[in-house]
Amino acid sequence: xxxxxxxxxxxxxxxxxxxxxxxxxxxxxxxxxxxxxxxxxxxxxxxxxxxxxxxxxxxxxxxxxxxxxxxxxxxxxxxxxxxxxxxxxxxxxxxxxxxxxxxxxxxxxxxxxxxxxxxxxxxxxxxxxxxxxxxxxxxxxxxxxxxxxxxxxxxxxxxxxxxxxxxxxxxxxxxxxxxxxxxxxxxxxxxxxxxxxxxxxxxxxxxxxxxxxxxxxxxxxxxxxxxxxxxxxxxxxxxxxxxxxxxxxxxxxxxxxxxxxxxxxxxxxxxxxxxxxxxxxxxxxxxxxxxxxxxxxxxxxxxxxxxxxxxxxxxxxxxxxxxxxxxxxxxxxxxxxxxxxxxxxxxxxxxxxxxxxxxxxxxxxxxxxxxxxxx
Length: 375
Ligand SMILES: Cc1cc2nc3c(=O)[nH]c(=O)nc-3n(C[C@H](O)[C@H](O)[C@H](O)COP(=O)(O)O)c2cc1C
Description:
Layout: E1 8-12, H1 36-48, E2 53-56, H2 68-71, H3 76-84, E3 91-97, H4 103-116, E4 121-126, H5 146-160, E5 169-172, E6 177-179, E7 189-190, E8 195-196, E9 211-215, H6 219-228, E10 231-234, H7 239-255, E11 264-269, E12 272-274, H8 277-290, E13 302-304, H9 305-317, E14 323-327, H10 333-347, H11 360-364
Parallel strand pairs: 1-2, 1-14, 2-3, 3-4, 4-9, 9-10, 10-11, 11-14, 12-13
Antiparallel strand pairs: 5-6, 7-8
Helix pairs in contact: 3-4, 4-5, 5-6, 6-7, 9-10
Bound molecules: flavin mononucleotide.
InterPro entries: Diverse_substr_monoxygenases, Luciferase-like_dom, Luciferase-like_sf, NTA_MOA
Pfam families: Bac_luciferase
Domain Luciferase-like: 24-294
């Protein structure tokens, strides 16, 4: 059993919503997915709710029939850089696919976001859908390449983030010593997919390096995540599945010689909450009425705030969820959750009333990763 940390909560801001009809709601700007004012407003609201992190999902190829959010949206690191300037404590996590990006660029981009935000960056590393191969000039590769490629990608990014030891930069104007060259390390990585010399030209941040999340479900996914992730974003519709994932990941994380206490299981939910069951039902019907040809399912977390808080508590206490990622189904979903459910979770001592730390690792209760060359 894990040593119990408080529950962690993140907010997935997906513009007009992760459904077909949300954009038509009177309270939703129809261009929310490309509207920075909307993102700023939501980011500030999540920070008022003491959420651990903003979490942005992504897509690598689109076509007709996809949800409106995917059809016209911002790129994640760009939004998060802007949001870093209007927030102070909340984490900033972007999804970037290892199948399509370039490892040197991602290492540099994420390390820059980490320094710009004073240690609040997170990266959700996904393989993504193979459909993206055609957008990123990689049609010579196939689905079977994606996990071997991801393994190399992560080894490179982690290696590049250790390019400089923590005390490498002296910047002493008097003596003229800018840095200690013995504390700069090249990587010289040679793989089947990538070849990267390094070093990376940016020093480590207040939290050492960005937090690494990974999303997926297969055995290959779990093998790589057990070694190279601080947390995983899992598909789990029910508590039994989540518990089974948790047990299997525990086994694999411990096989890597790591403590499972330092590993977070993230599950997403799209609660519809009201002061009463009836109010939640009205919100659900309001959404359904926006586009009667598409039906959405009633979410798992549904009903009065008290009932939703009970459900969250049972997942958390079963060790099946360390980080709850909230998505808004209804355009006021974050507001309802923050106003109605968060105070109950705080009252029960499950969720924080104040941020504990000034960086993402600190708030998530993750240890500081020592530079491999300093140990
Ligand atoms: C919970 C969860 C979240 C995911 N989020 C994204 C995402 O934001 N963008 C993306 O391109 N793929 C996303 N994926 C897809 C994965 O990257 C991966 O392509 C897919 O799960 C297939 O790998 P698997 O067989 O290991 O599950 C997600 C998958 C899961 C399970």
